[in-house]
Amino acid sequence: MYAARTVASASRAAEASRVMPGGDTRAITWFLPHPLFVEEGRGCELVDVDGNVYLDLLSNYTSLVHGHAHPAITAAVARQAARGTAFAAAHDGQVQLARLLCERVGSVERVRFCNSGTEAVMLALRLARAFTGRPLVAKAEGGYHGSWDGVEASVEPEPATAGSRERPATVPESEGLLPGAAESLVVIPFNDLAAAEAILEPLADRLAAVIIEPVAGVAGTIPADPEYLQGLRALTQRLGALLVLDEVITLRLAPGGAQALYGVSPDLTTMGKIIGGGLPVGAVGGREEVMALTDPGRPGFLPHSGTFNGNAATTAAGVAALELLTAAECERLNGLGDRFREAICALGAELGLPVTASGLGSLLTIHLLDEPPGNYREARRADPEGVRLLHLALLNEGVFAARRGMLCLSTLMGESEVERALAAIRRAVLAVHAERPLPTRAAGELVAEAR
Ligand code: PMP
Protein backbone atom coordinates (compact mmCIF):
# COMPACT_ATOMS: atom_id res chain seq x y z
CA MET A 1 0.00 0.00 0.00
CA TYR A 2 2.78 2.47 0.95
CA ALA A 3 4.65 1.62 -2.27
CA ALA A 4 1.50 2.08 -4.38
CA ARG A 5 0.76 5.51 -2.83
CA THR A 6 4.29 6.80 -3.23
CA VAL A 7 5.44 5.97 -6.76
CA ALA A 8 6.94 9.42 -7.31
CA SER A 9 8.93 9.06 -4.06
CA ALA A 10 10.16 5.67 -5.30
CA SER A 11 11.50 7.10 -8.54
CA ARG A 12 13.02 10.11 -6.74
CA ALA A 13 14.73 7.69 -4.33
CA ALA A 14 16.14 5.65 -7.21
CA GLU A 15 17.47 8.83 -8.83
CA ALA A 16 18.80 10.11 -5.53
CA SER A 17 20.76 6.96 -4.83
CA ARG A 18 22.92 7.81 -7.86
CA VAL A 19 24.20 10.87 -6.04
CA MET A 20 23.63 10.08 -2.33
CA PRO A 21 24.32 6.68 -0.72
CA GLY A 22 20.93 5.12 -0.04
CA GLY A 23 19.23 8.08 -1.72
CA ASP A 24 19.03 10.06 1.52
CA THR A 25 21.34 12.01 3.80
CA ARG A 26 20.06 11.24 7.32
CA ALA A 27 20.15 7.62 8.49
CA ILE A 28 17.07 8.25 10.60
CA THR A 29 14.84 9.42 7.74
CA TRP A 30 15.68 6.46 5.51
CA PHE A 31 13.45 3.38 5.39
CA LEU A 32 12.33 0.57 3.09
CA PRO A 33 10.84 0.15 0.56
CA HIS A 34 12.03 3.74 -0.08
CA PRO A 35 12.22 6.99 1.86
CA LEU A 36 9.44 9.53 1.45
CA PHE A 37 10.20 12.63 -0.62
CA VAL A 38 8.52 15.78 0.65
CA GLU A 39 7.35 18.51 -1.69
CA GLU A 40 6.23 21.06 0.84
CA GLY A 41 5.47 21.80 4.50
CA ARG A 42 2.30 23.75 5.20
CA GLY A 43 1.61 24.59 8.81
CA CYS A 44 1.14 21.29 10.60
CA GLU A 45 0.88 19.32 7.36
CA LEU A 46 3.35 17.87 4.88
CA VAL A 47 2.71 17.19 1.21
CA ASP A 48 4.78 14.49 -0.49
CA VAL A 49 5.84 14.44 -4.13
CA ASP A 50 2.85 12.21 -4.98
CA GLY A 51 0.47 14.80 -3.52
CA ASN A 52 -0.38 12.81 -0.37
CA VAL A 53 -1.06 15.01 2.65
CA TYR A 54 0.14 14.07 6.14
CA LEU A 55 -0.50 15.48 9.57
CA ASP A 56 3.09 16.21 10.57
CA LEU A 57 3.45 14.73 14.02
CA LEU A 58 7.23 14.77 13.87
CA SER A 59 7.98 18.43 13.06
CA ASN A 60 11.51 17.64 11.92
CA TYR A 61 12.17 15.61 15.05
CA THR A 62 10.49 18.10 17.41
CA SER A 63 12.35 21.17 16.16
CA LEU A 64 9.47 22.91 14.35
CA VAL A 65 7.40 23.66 17.42
CA HIS A 66 5.36 26.18 15.38
CA GLY A 67 5.00 23.95 12.32
CA HIS A 68 6.26 24.72 8.82
CA ALA A 69 6.63 28.20 7.37
CA HIS A 70 5.08 30.03 10.31
CA PRO A 71 4.39 33.56 9.00
CA ALA A 72 6.13 35.34 11.89
CA ILE A 73 9.24 33.20 11.50
CA THR A 74 9.44 33.34 7.71
CA ALA A 75 9.00 37.13 7.93
CA ALA A 76 11.81 37.41 10.46
CA VAL A 77 14.12 35.27 8.28
CA ALA A 78 13.20 37.18 5.11
CA ARG A 79 13.83 40.52 6.83
CA GLN A 80 17.23 39.36 8.01
CA ALA A 81 18.15 37.57 4.76
CA ALA A 82 17.67 40.85 2.92
CA ARG A 83 20.28 42.39 5.25
CA GLY A 84 22.75 39.50 5.26
CA THR A 85 22.69 35.98 6.65
CA ALA A 86 26.11 35.58 8.25
CA PHE A 87 28.90 37.92 9.24
CA ALA A 88 32.43 37.36 10.47
CA ALA A 89 31.52 39.69 13.33
CA ALA A 90 29.16 39.89 16.27
CA HIS A 91 25.62 41.20 15.73
CA ASP A 92 22.61 42.10 17.82
CA GLY A 93 20.62 38.99 16.86
CA GLN A 94 23.08 36.80 18.76
CA VAL A 95 22.74 38.90 21.88
CA GLN A 96 18.96 38.91 21.60
CA LEU A 97 18.76 35.12 21.35
CA ALA A 98 21.36 34.61 24.10
CA ARG A 99 19.50 37.04 26.36
CA LEU A 100 16.22 35.21 25.79
CA LEU A 101 17.85 31.91 26.76
CA CYS A 102 19.47 33.41 29.87
CA GLU A 103 16.14 34.94 30.90
CA ARG A 104 14.13 31.79 30.30
CA VAL A 105 16.37 28.94 31.46
CA GLY A 106 17.19 29.22 35.16
CA SER A 107 20.66 27.61 35.12
CA VAL A 108 21.85 29.44 31.99
CA GLU A 109 24.06 32.44 32.79
CA ARG A 110 26.06 32.55 29.55
CA VAL A 111 25.54 31.07 26.08
CA ARG A 112 27.72 29.99 23.12
CA PHE A 113 26.11 29.18 19.78
CA CYS A 114 26.96 26.47 17.27
CA ASN A 115 25.10 24.76 14.43
CA SER A 116 23.60 21.55 15.79
CA GLY A 117 22.77 19.71 18.95
CA THR A 118 25.73 17.46 18.20
CA GLU A 119 28.12 20.41 18.24
CA ALA A 120 26.54 21.67 21.46
CA VAL A 121 27.26 18.35 23.16
CA MET A 122 30.83 18.35 21.79
CA LEU A 123 31.47 21.76 23.30
CA ALA A 124 29.73 20.99 26.61
CA LEU A 125 31.80 17.86 27.21
CA ARG A 126 35.02 19.57 26.19
CA LEU A 127 34.20 22.33 28.66
CA ALA A 128 33.48 19.77 31.38
CA ARG A 129 36.80 17.99 30.81
CA ALA A 130 38.71 21.27 30.70
CA PHE A 131 36.98 22.65 33.82
CA THR A 132 37.46 19.55 35.95
CA GLY A 133 40.74 18.35 34.46
CA ARG A 134 39.23 14.84 34.37
CA PRO A 135 38.87 12.47 31.40
CA LEU A 136 35.66 10.43 31.81
CA VAL A 137 32.08 11.17 30.79
CA ALA A 138 29.07 9.09 31.80
CA LYS A 139 25.94 8.69 29.71
CA ALA A 140 22.85 6.54 30.07
CA GLU A 141 22.22 3.39 28.10
CA GLY A 142 19.81 4.29 25.29
CA GLY A 143 20.78 7.98 25.57
CA TYR A 144 21.35 9.83 22.29
CA HIS A 145 23.48 12.95 22.28
CA GLY A 146 24.21 13.42 18.60
CA SER A 147 26.35 11.80 15.95
CA TRP A 148 29.97 12.05 17.03
CA ASP A 149 32.57 9.74 18.43
CA GLY A 150 32.53 11.00 22.02
CA VAL A 151 28.97 9.84 22.75
CA GLU A 152 28.15 7.27 20.10
CA ALA A 153 28.10 4.21 22.26
CA SER A 154 25.26 2.20 23.81
CA VAL A 155 22.57 4.20 22.02
CA GLU A 156 20.85 1.15 20.57
CA PRO A 157 23.03 -1.75 21.72
CA GLU A 158 22.16 -5.35 20.91
CA PRO A 159 21.04 -6.98 24.15
CA ALA A 160 23.53 -9.83 23.66
CA THR A 161 26.51 -7.47 23.90
CA ALA A 162 25.05 -4.85 26.21
CA GLY A 163 26.21 -6.31 29.52
CA SER A 164 24.08 -6.60 32.63
CA ARG A 165 21.19 -4.26 33.41
CA GLU A 166 22.90 -2.78 36.47
CA ARG A 167 26.32 -2.52 34.83
CA PRO A 168 25.87 -1.93 31.10
CA ALA A 169 28.83 -2.34 28.77
CA THR A 170 30.04 0.57 26.61
CA VAL A 171 29.08 -0.67 23.14
CA PRO A 172 30.35 1.46 20.21
CA GLU A 173 27.55 2.21 17.74
CA SER A 174 29.73 1.68 14.70
CA GLU A 175 33.15 1.09 13.29
CA GLY A 176 35.37 4.05 12.65
CA LEU A 177 35.11 5.85 15.98
CA LEU A 178 38.21 7.58 17.33
CA PRO A 179 40.51 5.13 19.08
CA GLY A 180 39.92 5.51 22.80
CA ALA A 181 36.46 7.04 22.42
CA ALA A 182 34.70 4.14 24.13
CA GLU A 183 37.29 4.02 26.93
CA SER A 184 36.47 7.54 28.01
CA LEU A 185 32.73 6.86 28.09
CA VAL A 186 31.03 5.17 31.03
CA VAL A 187 27.50 3.83 30.58
CA ILE A 188 24.96 3.92 33.40
CA PRO A 189 21.43 2.49 33.41
CA PHE A 190 18.59 4.98 32.87
CA ASN A 191 16.17 5.45 35.77
CA ASP A 192 18.19 3.36 38.24
CA LEU A 193 19.93 5.74 40.63
CA ALA A 194 21.40 3.11 42.94
CA ALA A 195 23.05 1.29 40.02
CA ALA A 196 24.36 4.58 38.58
CA GLU A 197 25.84 5.51 41.95
CA ALA A 198 27.50 2.10 42.27
CA ILE A 199 29.20 2.61 38.89
CA LEU A 200 30.18 6.25 39.32
CA GLU A 201 31.25 6.51 42.99
CA PRO A 202 34.48 4.55 42.46
CA LEU A 203 35.36 6.75 39.44
CA ALA A 204 35.08 9.93 41.48
CA ASP A 205 38.46 11.49 40.75
CA ARG A 206 38.29 10.71 37.01
CA LEU A 207 34.71 11.69 36.21
CA ALA A 208 34.31 15.02 34.37
CA ALA A 209 30.57 14.92 33.71
CA VAL A 210 27.35 13.02 33.55
CA ILE A 211 25.29 13.88 30.46
CA ILE A 212 21.64 12.95 30.59
CA GLU A 213 18.37 13.63 28.76
CA PRO A 214 15.39 14.58 30.96
CA VAL A 215 13.30 12.59 28.48
CA ALA A 216 15.26 9.85 26.69
CA GLY A 217 14.20 10.59 23.12
CA VAL A 218 15.66 7.89 20.87
CA ALA A 219 15.01 5.26 23.56
CA GLY A 220 11.29 6.05 23.22
CA THR A 221 10.58 9.45 24.83
CA ILE A 222 10.97 7.90 28.27
CA PRO A 223 10.82 10.52 31.03
CA ALA A 224 13.45 10.36 33.73
CA ASP A 225 12.04 9.70 37.19
CA PRO A 226 12.39 12.94 39.16
CA GLU A 227 14.38 11.10 41.88
CA TYR A 228 16.80 9.84 39.22
CA LEU A 229 17.55 13.30 37.81
CA GLN A 230 17.68 14.91 41.24
CA GLY A 231 19.87 12.04 42.44
CA LEU A 232 22.30 12.53 39.54
CA ARG A 233 22.45 16.23 40.42
CA ALA A 234 23.39 15.43 44.02
CA LEU A 235 25.82 12.69 42.96
CA THR A 236 27.72 14.87 40.48
CA GLN A 237 27.98 17.61 43.08
CA ARG A 238 29.33 15.11 45.60
CA LEU A 239 31.89 13.80 43.09
CA GLY A 240 33.01 17.20 41.83
CA ALA A 241 31.77 16.40 38.31
CA LEU A 242 29.48 18.53 36.14
CA LEU A 243 25.88 17.67 35.32
CA VAL A 244 25.14 18.32 31.65
CA LEU A 245 21.43 18.26 30.90
CA ASP A 246 20.78 17.55 27.23
CA GLU A 247 17.66 19.62 26.53
CA VAL A 248 17.95 19.47 22.74
CA ILE A 249 14.42 18.05 22.50
CA THR A 250 12.99 18.95 25.91
CA LEU A 251 13.42 22.71 25.83
CA ARG A 252 9.97 22.86 24.20
CA LEU A 253 8.30 21.59 27.41
CA ALA A 254 8.51 24.92 29.28
CA PRO A 255 10.16 28.31 28.73
CA GLY A 256 12.74 27.15 31.28
CA GLY A 257 13.03 23.68 29.71
CA ALA A 258 12.50 20.35 31.44
CA GLN A 259 14.87 21.46 34.19
CA ALA A 260 12.20 23.91 35.33
CA LEU A 261 9.62 21.10 35.49
CA TYR A 262 11.99 18.75 37.34
CA GLY A 263 13.47 21.38 39.64
CA VAL A 264 17.01 20.37 38.67
CA SER A 265 19.71 22.94 38.02
CA PRO A 266 22.51 21.53 35.82
CA ASP A 267 25.96 23.07 35.38
CA LEU A 268 25.59 23.06 31.60
CA THR A 269 22.60 22.69 29.27
CA THR A 270 22.81 21.64 25.65
CA MET A 271 20.15 23.11 23.38
CA GLY A 272 19.18 22.98 19.72
CA LYS A 273 16.10 22.37 17.58
CA ILE A 274 13.43 24.92 18.64
CA ILE A 275 15.91 27.71 19.42
CA GLY A 276 16.73 28.01 15.71
CA GLY A 277 13.13 28.42 14.59
CA GLY A 278 13.62 25.66 11.99
CA LEU A 279 17.15 26.59 10.87
CA PRO A 280 20.30 24.69 11.89
CA VAL A 281 21.32 25.54 15.44
CA GLY A 282 22.90 24.43 18.67
CA ALA A 283 23.88 26.18 21.89
CA VAL A 284 25.51 25.50 25.21
CA GLY A 285 24.45 27.49 28.22
CA GLY A 286 25.38 27.32 31.86
CA ARG A 287 27.34 28.54 34.85
CA GLU A 288 29.36 31.65 34.19
CA GLU A 289 32.61 30.22 35.60
CA VAL A 290 32.46 27.18 33.30
CA MET A 291 31.31 29.08 30.20
CA ALA A 292 34.07 31.65 30.81
CA LEU A 293 36.61 29.09 29.59
CA THR A 294 35.51 29.99 26.05
CA ASP A 295 36.27 33.71 26.56
CA PRO A 296 39.08 34.47 24.08
CA GLY A 297 40.14 37.38 26.28
CA ARG A 298 41.28 34.96 28.98
CA PRO A 299 44.73 33.40 28.96
CA GLY A 300 44.59 29.69 28.09
CA PHE A 301 41.01 29.95 26.85
CA LEU A 302 39.31 27.07 25.08
CA PRO A 303 38.96 27.97 21.40
CA HIS A 304 35.44 27.60 20.07
CA SER A 305 34.69 28.75 16.53
CA GLY A 306 32.46 27.93 13.60
CA THR A 307 31.79 29.77 10.35
CA PHE A 308 28.05 29.74 10.92
CA ASN A 309 27.96 30.02 14.73
CA GLY A 310 25.25 32.47 15.71
CA ASN A 311 24.47 33.30 12.07
CA ALA A 312 21.96 36.07 11.58
CA ALA A 313 19.28 34.04 9.78
CA THR A 314 19.19 31.46 12.57
CA THR A 315 19.18 33.97 15.39
CA ALA A 316 16.33 35.93 13.75
CA ALA A 317 14.29 32.74 13.35
CA GLY A 318 15.16 31.60 16.85
CA VAL A 319 14.11 34.84 18.50
CA ALA A 320 10.80 34.80 16.61
CA ALA A 321 10.16 31.17 17.55
CA LEU A 322 10.95 31.60 21.24
CA GLU A 323 8.83 34.74 21.51
CA LEU A 324 5.87 32.75 20.15
CA LEU A 325 6.48 29.92 22.60
CA THR A 326 4.97 31.43 25.72
CA ALA A 327 4.50 29.63 29.03
CA ALA A 328 0.77 29.41 28.29
CA GLU A 329 1.42 27.77 24.92
CA CYS A 330 3.83 25.25 26.46
CA GLU A 331 1.20 24.36 29.06
CA ARG A 332 -1.57 24.06 26.49
CA LEU A 333 0.55 21.79 24.29
CA ASN A 334 1.64 19.67 27.24
CA GLY A 335 -1.98 19.23 28.34
CA LEU A 336 -2.92 18.23 24.80
CA GLY A 337 0.00 15.80 24.74
CA ASP A 338 -1.09 14.25 28.04
CA ARG A 339 -4.59 13.63 26.68
CA PHE A 340 -3.13 12.25 23.43
CA ARG A 341 -0.94 9.80 25.36
CA GLU A 342 -3.79 8.70 27.62
CA ALA A 343 -6.01 8.11 24.58
CA ILE A 344 -3.36 5.90 22.92
CA CYS A 345 -3.03 3.85 26.11
CA ALA A 346 -6.84 3.59 26.29
CA LEU A 347 -6.91 2.44 22.66
CA GLY A 348 -4.53 -0.41 23.48
CA ALA A 349 -6.67 -1.45 26.44
CA GLU A 350 -9.87 -1.23 24.39
CA LEU A 351 -8.48 -3.30 21.51
CA GLY A 352 -6.77 -5.71 23.86
CA LEU A 353 -3.56 -5.18 21.91
CA PRO A 354 -0.07 -4.22 23.03
CA VAL A 355 -0.33 -0.52 22.22
CA THR A 356 0.75 2.10 24.71
CA ALA A 357 2.46 5.48 24.83
CA SER A 358 5.19 7.10 26.88
CA GLY A 359 6.49 10.63 27.01
CA LEU A 360 6.11 13.95 28.73
CA GLY A 361 3.87 16.83 27.67
CA SER A 362 4.02 17.45 23.94
CA LEU A 363 6.57 14.62 23.34
CA LEU A 364 5.36 11.06 22.97
CA THR A 365 6.06 7.64 21.43
CA ILE A 366 3.66 4.85 20.53
CA HIS A 367 5.06 1.54 21.78
CA LEU A 368 3.83 -1.90 20.79
CA LEU A 369 4.01 -2.96 24.42
CA ASP A 370 1.50 -3.56 27.21
CA GLU A 371 3.00 -0.92 29.51
CA PRO A 372 5.01 2.27 28.89
CA PRO A 373 8.72 1.37 29.14
CA GLY A 374 10.94 2.84 31.86
CA ASN A 375 14.22 2.45 30.01
CA TYR A 376 15.82 1.43 26.70
CA ARG A 377 15.81 -2.31 27.46
CA GLU A 378 12.11 -2.32 28.22
CA ALA A 379 11.34 -0.32 25.07
CA ARG A 380 13.30 -2.83 23.00
CA ARG A 381 10.95 -5.65 23.90
CA ALA A 382 8.55 -4.43 21.19
CA ASP A 383 8.49 -6.54 18.04
CA PRO A 384 10.69 -4.65 15.52
CA GLU A 385 8.71 -5.88 12.52
CA GLY A 386 5.48 -4.65 14.13
CA VAL A 387 7.10 -1.25 14.73
CA ARG A 388 8.24 -1.11 11.09
CA LEU A 389 4.78 -1.99 9.81
CA LEU A 390 3.14 0.53 12.13
CA HIS A 391 5.28 3.34 10.72
CA LEU A 392 4.25 2.47 7.15
CA ALA A 393 0.60 2.04 8.21
CA LEU A 394 0.64 5.47 9.86
CA LEU A 395 1.96 7.01 6.64
CA ASN A 396 -0.78 5.22 4.70
CA GLU A 397 -3.31 6.74 7.11
CA GLY A 398 -1.90 10.23 6.68
CA VAL A 399 0.20 10.51 9.85
CA PHE A 400 3.85 11.44 9.58
CA ALA A 401 5.70 9.95 12.56
CA ALA A 402 9.24 8.81 13.30
CA ARG A 403 10.12 5.29 12.24
CA ARG A 404 10.25 4.25 15.85
CA GLY A 405 6.82 5.75 16.64
CA MET A 406 7.88 9.09 18.10
CA LEU A 407 5.37 11.93 17.80
CA CYS A 408 5.22 15.52 18.97
CA LEU A 409 2.73 18.35 18.85
CA SER A 410 3.17 21.79 17.37
CA THR A 411 1.48 24.99 18.45
CA LEU A 412 -0.70 24.91 15.33
CA MET A 413 -2.44 21.84 16.71
CA GLY A 414 -5.50 21.53 18.91
CA GLU A 415 -8.12 18.95 19.86
CA SER A 416 -9.19 18.37 16.26
CA GLU A 417 -5.67 17.42 15.12
CA VAL A 418 -5.34 15.04 18.06
CA GLU A 419 -8.71 13.46 17.17
CA ARG A 420 -7.59 13.15 13.55
CA ALA A 421 -4.35 11.51 14.68
CA LEU A 422 -6.11 9.12 17.05
CA ALA A 423 -8.51 7.93 14.35
CA ALA A 424 -5.55 7.34 12.03
CA ILE A 425 -3.58 5.52 14.73
CA ARG A 426 -6.57 3.22 15.40
CA ARG A 427 -6.85 2.37 11.69
CA ALA A 428 -3.08 1.88 11.42
CA VAL A 429 -2.90 -0.45 14.44
CA LEU A 430 -5.76 -2.54 13.06
CA ALA A 431 -4.08 -2.69 9.65
CA VAL A 432 -0.85 -3.95 11.24
CA HIS A 433 -2.76 -6.48 13.32
CA ALA A 434 -4.53 -7.76 10.19
CA GLU A 435 -1.20 -8.21 8.39
CA ARG A 436 0.82 -9.61 11.26
CA PRO A 437 -1.23 -10.39 14.36
CA LEU A 438 0.09 -8.57 17.40
CA PRO A 439 0.21 -10.65 20.58
CA THR A 440 -2.96 -10.05 22.56
CA ARG A 441 -2.71 -8.79 26.09
CA ALA A 442 -2.77 -11.45 28.75
CA ALA A 443 -5.83 -9.96 30.42
CA GLY A 444 -7.29 -8.22 27.39
CA GLU A 445 -10.15 -9.09 25.08
CA LEU A 446 -10.10 -8.32 21.37
CA VAL A 447 -12.92 -6.12 20.23
CA ALA A 448 -14.93 -7.27 17.24
CA GLU A 449 -13.28 -4.94 14.72
CA ALA A 450 -9.82 -6.06 15.73
CA ARG A 451 -10.55 -9.75 15.20
N1 PMP B 1 20.84 15.50 21.85
C1 PMP B 1 19.60 15.04 21.80
C2 PMP B 1 18.89 14.73 23.07
C3 PMP B 1 18.95 14.87 20.57
O1 PMP B 1 17.70 14.39 20.54
C4 PMP B 1 19.65 15.22 19.40
C5 PMP B 1 19.01 15.08 18.02
N2 PMP B 1 17.85 14.45 17.91
C6 PMP B 1 20.96 15.69 19.50
C7 PMP B 1 21.52 15.83 20.74
C8 PMP B 1 21.74 16.06 18.27
O2 PMP B 1 21.21 17.18 17.68
P1 PMP B 1 21.48 17.48 16.12
O3 PMP B 1 20.71 16.45 15.36
O4 PMP B 1 20.98 18.87 15.92
O5 PMP B 1 22.95 17.37 15.92
Q: Give me the CATH fold name of the domain at 72-324.
A: Aspartate Aminotransferase, domain 2
Count of beta strands: 16
Small molecules held by this entry: 4'-deoxy-4'-aminopyridoxal-5'-phosphate
Question: How would a textbook summarize the main sheet?
Answer: 7 strands, mixed
Question: What proportion of the residues is helical, as a percent range?
Answer: 25-40%
What structural category characterises the helix and strand content? alpha/beta
In angstroms, what is the radius of gyration?
22 Å
Strand content: 5-15%
CATH structural architecture of the domain at 72-324: 3-Layer(aba) Sandwich
CATH superfamily of the domain at 72-324: Type I PLP-dependent aspartate aminotransferase-like (Major domain)
Mean pLDDT across the residues is 96
